[in-house]
Design goal:
Layout: E1 11-18, E2 27-33, E3 38-48, E4 55-61, H1 73-80, H2 85-88, E5 96-104, E6 112-113, E7 121-130, E8 135-145, E9 155-156, E10 162-164, E11 170-171, E12 174-175, E13 178-179, E14 195-204, E15 208-211, E16 214-220, E17 224-234, E18 239-242, E19 248-251, E20 256-259, H3 268-286, E21 293-296, H4 298-303, H5 321-341, H6 350-368, H7 397-407, H8 423-445, H9 449-461, H10 468-476, H11 484-491, E22 499-506, E23 510-517, E24 525-531, E25 534-541, E26 549-553, E27 559-562, E28 577-579, E29 590-594, E30 604-615, E31 619-627, E32 636-645, E33 650-662, E34 668-683, E35 686-699, E36 708-721, E37 734-747, E38 751-761, E39 765-777, E40 783-796, E41 805-806, E42 848-849, E43 852-863, E44 866-876, E45 883-895, E46 899-907, E47 910-911, E48 923-926, H12 930-938
Parallel strand pairs: 20-21, 29-30
Antiparallel strand pairs: 1-14, 2-3, 3-8, 4-7, 4-11, 5-8, 6-7, 9-10, 10-18, 12-13, 14-17, 15-18, 16-17, 19-20, 22-23, 23-26, 24-25, 24-27, 27-28, 30-31, 31-32, 32-33, 33-34, 34-35, 35-36, 36-37, 37-38, 38-39, 39-40, 40-43, 41-42, 43-44, 44-45, 45-46, 46-47, 46-48
Length: 942
Amino acid sequence: MKLFHKNIIFILVLFTSLKHFGQHNSHIVVEVSTERKTLTIQQEIVFFNQSEDTLTSIVLNDWINAYSSKTSPLAKRFSDEFYRGFHLAKDEERGSTNNLTISNFDKTVLSWERTKKNPDLVTVKLGNKLAPNQKITLHLAYIVKVPSDKFTSYGYTDNGGMNLKNWFITPARYENHAFVRNSNCNLDDIANAFSDFEIRLIIPKNLEPTTDLSSSQTQQTEAFSFYKLTGTNRTDFSLFLEPKPSFRSYKNSSIEVLTNIKGNKADEINKAIAIDRIVNFTNDLIGKYPFEKITVSQTDYNRNPFYGLNQLPSFIVPFPDDFLFEIKFLKTYLNNYLKNSLKLDPRKDNWIYDGIQVYVMMRYIEENYPNCKMMGRVSDYKLFKGFNLLNLDFNEQYSYFYLLMARKNLDQPLGASKNTLIKFNEQIASKYRAGLSLIYLDEYIGTPFMSKSVQQFNAENKEKQTTRTDFETALKSNTKKEIDWFFNTIVDSREIIDYKFSNVSKTKDSVAFSIRNRTNVSVPIPIYGIKNDTIVFKKWIETTKKDSIYIFERKEAQKIVINYKNEVPEFNLRNNWKKIEGLFPNNRPVKFAFVKDLEDPYYNQIIYAPILTYNVYDGLSPGMRFHNRAILNRPFVYDINPTYSIKSKTMTGSAIFMVNKDYRDSNLFNVRYSVSGNYFHYAPDATYLKINPMVLMQLRADDFRDNRKRMIYVRQVVVDRQKSAIVIDNSLEDYSVFNVKYINSRTEVTNHVSFTGDVQFSGEFGKISTEIQFRKLFENNRQINLRMFAGSFLYNTTNSDFFSFALDRPTDYLFDYAYLGRSSSTGLVSQEFIMAEGGFKSKLDTPYANQWITTINGGYTIWNWIEAYGDVGFVKYTQQKPHFVYDSGIRFNLLTDYFELYFPLYSNNGWEIAQPHYGEKIRFVVTLNPNKLVPLFTRKWF
């Protein structure tokens, strides 16, 4: 092949054979252009059909082509998770497979297809049927355009290297009489058939290859280095090309580890000790790694970091550098170990990979760091001794990350396909619960049950392609106990577990009790006897029999506790204990905590923190917040915020009392009952008191990843306003409004659609309105925004515009908006804009409508975050004809809904830009409330 010219980086010849459901011998020649970031590939595949089926087509994984389209499953995944980088990227930064031709052994061109829905799968139509135990030879030629590594960490790098994974075409896994058709969704779960590899690699001398295949240098010239790479019985491999090698080799008696995991200031000796300890521990617990070499890269860790550690700035990380390196290496090593060893479908059976990984991590910490805390050395400081979060054992954090989603009613079954999981579940909560579940089963059966079962399953993977059934068989073969409940309840359902004591009695020598099952989910549960924080007994009980009385030897226990060590992934830990000594056995003492903490099951926590609020009339208002909002959602919440207005020298503040009710198996997944109150100034000389009892119903689709939100508000707003000598209107000072609102919205990076219906009734008026919003980001990165608002009074006996529909600035008689100066008609705060009702930006001579209003607001991208906007509509006032209104201008959309600027140009007022005092016409959107900014950062997770 005449590939030797200045753009060549390497030539690669690849031999591959499939040992279970087919065999393919692949010879690949690859020409890499550093300027174009392309690989020119010629490939030969000999496919051996060892299934029982006659094949008419073969499915090939072409995952690099997932980067070719802004509508591919990969692109949609990015959009769903609010990652804009892929959509806004330059064309040269994206990847693709181009000029693909496929022919058979006699050079006859074969037809193939890839659908628009799944552009990363290639279906090859065979000229003749391929019977069992027959072979076919395929010749492929194509050009791979390597994507930038900024999307997924795989691709070309800024330093001239490449991190290559899933970069060439491979046969898909064959299972249950069909090829597995998994598209690339950035989940590292490609379903390849397993193979033998023999690779001949030629690269320029200025590049260094690192791979988990066995390698040896065979030749060297002035310009090139020649390598031979081999691997057997594998589904995938990694290849890193670097101008300056960053990997170091660590060897022990069983394996060579190549890693470039960053170790901060950890020295090489301690790194080598940690790696050796991790390798040997893993070998002893779940079996020897089946290959001679493994890569553990920083790229792999960055894609799946240890959450918690990676969220902290480096200057406050509370762990020694050696421990940080060890835990990062442990997590990444186990991930790569299992992905390379287990031959499961990594999308469908992902919980097994995750469960074994977290199981080993927890056992490793138990053995090597039994006293390590979740927040490391921070827990040693006396200042933080009262924080439950900072005093958790390291392994306890796994349970709380699962509970974080369970308490939000967003947890999903462990056995759910990986691509159906919410991002937080996929990367954190479900992963941790899978490990907790294996620990649970191990503790119930008795160690080394799980270790023995995983070793057996691991050995089976060396011989054949496996499924979940094989793992279940391995578990059941190592115990005489019936464990179907584990798969039916713990793995395949999202049933929650919650037990509490009832009918507790004691004598000097024994304790008797019954167990109340609050969710009717019967699984084994451990009971502990505790004396002075020491365990004096532990027994497992079966809970299948109702109204059973259990009698245990007391052994001087002072209290009995259900699930003391959190072996069982239980929903509520606050009802798990009973004192059997003292005058007030069920009394929890009050515990004050500064700022938000994890709930402590043994105390009633009151959390306090200083706050500072602001509006023009109250000025800066310092205060103190008292609440019981913990990191985990709670069924009852109170939040009381008294403040002192420095400007008016009066007490102000707000409070809310709320009850949450979750429904686990319904589209109506949450109902929230609340009563709130607010007391602030609405004018320099007058205050308002708002009382708001409300019921909020939240509905969701069956698909948890669907970003659609549906909510129904039913509330009664009661307002008591003081008279103001400055703000004069003829509206009522005291009024009450009954309000029903329905919201249906769906938001992602490329699309936003929402519908709002609103009905209000009071003694003086009744009104109905609707709002429809549409936002679309096109493939050319231009964006269009459209909004329609229409409202009409059903009746109106008021004699002011306080309750009227507003064209540009609602009066906000329900006090829903956080205006900086709600009553100001001049000054900077009067230019604040809130997209509501008419949605106009210019202030026109017809600012209100007391009969009906209809408006359309639109905008279109000019460049980057600069948009042109325009508004049109009609307003109808009593005894007047409908008035046509319009305006237009430029919008600086710096952060949608959070920070925006509007510059009016032309409206009913004429050329506004040429009129005096133009600066007073500029409108702005600004969000100062931190609670409203939080969703901007959390929406990609939930």
